[in-house]
Amino acid sequence: MKVLSYLAFLLVFMSCQSQTKELSLNAKPSKAIAVFASGCFWCTEHVFEAVYGVDEAVSGYTGGTIKNPTYHQVGTNQTGHAEAVAVFYDPKKVSFTQLVDAFFASQDPTTPNQQGPDVGSSYRSIAFYGNLGEKKIIEDKIKALTLAKVFNNPIVTEVKPISAFYEAEAYHQDYVKNNPNQGYVKGVSIPRFNKFVKTYKGKLK
């Protein structure tokens, strides 16, 4: 009976571990998409969903090579993936440049493979681009922040082309909104968001 119970548990566990899927990055008519990684995706998602013109931010994994990675696999820092968000937005209301501003205003881009208390390559800072124009916007922003000496240390944010994006497990979506009293949310996500609100110069919802 114990063997059967263990096998049943294993099957359920394996099923739960394979609930990710590749997210289509084909934007809807009149909409656009941007992808950013800046530490825990609970925090990053909450930030971008507060920006005016953003319809939705989806938590997921990207930047690596393994298909359909799970949260556990990405957390081992062996997949090459980073926790990230796919931001669906209306370019008539908010520009890619403004989203890049929000990206840098909501994190410390000078800490390699780390954001706050979260350490590992899955928490590294990455700004993804869909075309050369977006790449230039990101690189120009990094140069401007460097010249203005906004940060005490060099910016280590990676600038990479958008690649396959895997939507994270359902319980990660809107995590801060759905779990306001969770310890990490209260101790890390909310303070980070409040700091962003004070720093970001763009329009919020």
Explained architecture:
Strands 1-9-3-4-2-7-8 form a 7-stranded mixed β-sheet, with helices on one face. It has a two-stranded antiparallel ribbon with strand order 5-6. Helix 4 packs across helix 5. The chain has helices at residues 2-16, 41-48, 71-75, 96-105, 132-147, 175-178, 183-199, and strands spanning 21-22, 32-38, 54-62, 82-89, 114-115, 118-119, 125-129, 158-161, 165-167. The model is unreliable at 1-17 (pLDDT under 50). The longest helix is centred in the C-terminal third of the chain and has 17 residues, at 183-199. Strand 5 (114-115) and strand 6 form a beta hairpin. The radius of gyration is 18 Å and the shape is globular. The protein has 205 residues and is α+β, with helices and mostly antiparallel strands. It has 7 helices and 9 strands; from the N terminus they run αββαβαβαβββαββαα.
Defining key terms:
205 residues; alpha+beta; Peptide Methionine Sulfoxide Reductase, Chain A; 7-stranded mixed beta sheet; two-stranded antiparallel ribbon; 7 helices; 9 strands; 37% helix; globular
Topology:
Blueprint: H1 2-16, E1 21-22, E2 32-38, H2 41-48, E3 54-62, H3 71-75, E4 82-89, H4 96-105, E5 114-115, E6 118-119, E7 125-129, H5 132-147, E8 158-161, E9 165-167, H6 175-178, H7 183-199
Parallel strand pairs: 7-8
Antiparallel strand pairs: 1-9, 2-4, 2-7, 3-4, 3-9, 5-6
